[in-house]
Design a protein that fits this description.
Elements (H helix, E strand, L loop, with lengths): L9 H22 L5 H15 L20 H21 L18 H8 L4 H28 L1 H12 L2 H7 L5 H21 L7 H18 L1 H19 L6 H19 L4 H4 L1 H4 L5 E3 L2 H8 L4 H16 L6 H13 L2 E3 L6 H4 L1 H15 L5 H22 L8
Antiparallel strand pairs: 1-2
Amino acid sequence: MKLPKIHIGRPQQIAALLLLFFLGECLWVIDRQQLSPADYRYALCGREMWERPSPLAGYFTTCGNLNGDGTMAYRVAGLPLSVQRLVLVGADKLRKPENRLYVGGSLGGSTWEMRHQISLTGVKFLMHLPFVFFAIWLGGGLWWVCRRLFGDEGAFLSLGLYCFCPTVIRYAVSPNNEILAMWGLYGLVYAAIGVAHALQGPRRKWKPRIGLFILALGLTASAHLLAAMVGFVAAAGFLFYLAERRRSYVMQILIFSALGALGIVFASFAFRLAPFSYVFTGGGARFWFSLEAVKGFFAYLINAPIAVATGVAAVLYLGVKRCRYFGNTTPLLMVLAVFALQTTQQVSYPWLWALPFLLTFAGGVFADALETKQRRIFLALSIVILLTQVLFCLNTLPSLSRTI
């Protein structure tokens, strides 16, 4: 089986440069952060998931059974520390017995020892960088989707607004399930669209995309159950809409995907049935509707360029027929579905999950506007919006070192 050829041209290089700048912003913020109680919680309980069961009888970790909270952020935060600990113990075994730091070579350790280890220089990068990489992964996916749908100009507008969005950076530099849910929901929706397109082609292309869809659904559910449920319902709608003559396969795909996703979530609980049952009884997916968070996002000055881009895109979408097609309507529908959600059982931020779809919508509509006779006007407007977003972001970076 031949591997596909990877062509790295000028567009890919520019996109990589933007993502590299995004990485630099995040590193700058992390370097100035102070470890918080939430960091210790994610690190300690994440390590417990990877290394040993909870010392408290009847509980999954010392954080409890994660009633309503996803396991993925804990595992993402804890994995680098567990690997680091394994390397330290392995190196320790090379020392003489009287010089060893870990008695008996144990991977365990008290809470005090864990707090001492996590306070070492560089450990906060081990714990925070995985979330930055998920944000970079999402940025790459955003650019790829927009470029496939709208071309280079729309893709660079969306990616530029993403890489210089202080809100994205703020959630990318600390352990949390929100950035993972945002990554998962966006990938889940477009993976489902990819499955629908694959159904129109040869069967050999079905399994890889269905497998990717199952993985996206399972990981999203491990991060936040509500995000997975919203993505699953949206995926079902897009599959039935796009599958056309292959709609008879859609229900089978959805059933097997749901079962596969449950298996992934069960695995994230180390195949322990008692804590896994809290997925169904913890209330993590309970929600209602509120526009307060949306009003707060658009009223915040640093988000003014995104607000302007959204407003212009909305006017063009409603007023120009060429802007109203599936590529632009899909992210708009997701924005409308997610932006107004508000969790009631736990503190969560569904409005954040809608941001990649919002930027996709803005990039798509502006790409259409750039193909009209008013190209120069909209090109100038795009440049002004991007430059303003860059200035606002760089000016805000010092305040982002505060933990969320």
